[in-house]
Amino acid sequence: MIKETITETDQRMKSTIQALEEDLSAIRTGRASPALVEHLAVDYYGAPTPLMQLASISVPEPRVLMIRPFDPSTLKTIEKAILASELGLTPNNDGKVIRLNLPVLTEQRRKELVKMVHTRLEEARVSARNIRRDVMKDLKEFEKEKLISEDDLKHGEEELQKLTEKIIESIDAVGIKKEKEIMEV
């Protein structure tokens, strides 16, 4: 019973890391990356739709993103979504494609982005700790209902703590990697 609970917890915590990585991929580094705009919500016939479902996104040059809508009539809506986003980029529209020129990041902007990364990392750590707290409660409940022994409870709590520490180390590693990407000139 404890093994299944720990395995399930491991999956939940790993999904936290996966969500963090997706979240951080949208934070801009010095290079152009489609991940920067893939999940940008565009109002498509009244429904917020991720940009990657409405257009192909390519990187023709290291600091340029090219967005080619599948339906040319969505060009203006995509442009509006980019302007309204927190990307701070100005789209160049030639009637067929949108080009996003990524300016060189200033030292101040890099520091702001690193702060944003740290905030997201802390949110991920809190999420992992909340999962640990919920599972601890479940384990104590199992013991109270005599489904597991006191020794099993102690063992389960130790396993859970090891797992949580491992996940938090992984979260920190993801953060360090992203920070290096941002600070790279």
Outline of the structure:
This protein is an alpha+beta fold. Helices cover 57% and strands 15% of the residues. It has a 4-stranded antiparallel sheet, with helices on one face. Strands 1-2 form a two-stranded antiparallel ribbon.
Task: Give structural notes.
By secondary structure, the chain is an alpha+beta fold. The chain is built from 4 helices and 6 strands. It folds into 2 domains: 2-25 and 106-183, Ribosome-recycling factor (Topoisomerase I, Chain A, domain 4, Orthogonal Bundle); 34-101, 2-Layer Sandwich (Gyrase A, domain 2). Helix 1 packs antiparallel against helix 3 (107-144). The N and C termini lie far apart (51 Å).
How many DSSP H or I helices? 4
Strand count:
6
Q: Approximately how much helix is present in the residues? A: 55-70%
Strand order of the largest sheet: 3-4-6-5
CATH class of the largest domain: Mainly Alpha
Keywords:
Gyrase A, domain 2, four-stranded antiparallel β-sheet, alpha+beta, 6 strands, 57% helix, two-stranded antiparallel ribbon, 185 residues, Topoisomerase I, Chain A, domain 4
What is the topology?
Elements: H1 2-25, E1 41-44, E2 47-50, E3 55-61, E4 64-69, H2 75-84, E5 91-93, E6 98-101, H3 107-144, H4 150-183
Antiparallel strand pairs: 1-2, 3-4, 4-6, 5-6
